[in-house]
Galectin (Larinioides sclopetarius), 321 residues
Amino acid sequence: MIHFLLLDVANILCLGTPLQKFLTTPLADTRKYTGLKRYLFRETEPCRKFWHQFEINLMAGYDQSSDRVLHLSIRFDQHCVVRNHKQYDQWGPEERQGPFPFSFGRDFTMLIAAERTQYRIAVNNQHCWNFAHRLPMNRVNSIAMRGFFEVFQVEFIGRSNPRTQTVPTVQRGRTRLPPVYNPNIPYAYPIYDGLEPGMMIHINGRPSSNPHKFTINLQRGAAQYPPPDVAFHFDPRFFNRSVVRNTRRNGAWAAEETYISHFPFQPGISFELVIRVEADKFSVSINGRHFTDFRHRLRPLEMFDTLYIENDVSISSIRFS
């Protein structure tokens, strides 16, 4: 049997047994686990400047660290579509040859056919690429999408069990970001719609028993090299009892802000830190008390789509409200 995944756009179609587990849950509820990012795919100057790629993944799991059975990275800045897989956090060899059938502002329909030995991928009824199976296709249980496009419909089509799900148009919402508990550090949390005024980020954690420092960044993307732009860098330093706030753009740090009335962290003692995104600033509270404000230096805010935490701290929970 051939299983199909039809993607219409923004439309993704995945058919048949490999996605049976995904089908058992309404897409509106599943989206927060699969990392669906909803953006209107149209030609705009911010899109040209900041968003050069989008991606579609057939996942063996429900978070960004899961194995990717099929990874499609549509790269306008390189005019190519990269096909790959990822297992145990290691990427395989890329495949880049073939056409580039996408244009800014143009709707598209993608069809992914899962055959016995390979995936066949067509765009707008034209065959574009094949991708030989590297991982068993029966491991696929979710679809993860990220980028500047909007999904209108998801179809799962099998020989005996066709079904279609229409994805309703929804407002950007903060409640779709699920909580995370006890993540490994360093940790990158994808904020799939980017930052927006009114968002509150609740971080519960504990510095190590002999800490040097720990770092919380609101940044663009999860990759650390080249250094990503950082809208808000919050860096408690135990060695000199300071808390540095800053931004980074094009690899260069700006002027630090260091004034504080007191140093609110202690080795081995739990804390609750809340970052509120306001129209003109980030406002930080620690253990229920206002601590500092940091005025926005970089925009647009929605460009910054990752919460990144590293160094001498353990995190018990991250949640958004």
About this structure: Residues 27-34 form the longest helix (8 residues). Residues 89 and 264 are 36 Å apart (CA to CA). DSSP finds three helices and 24 strands in the chain. The first strand starts at residue 3 and ends at 8.
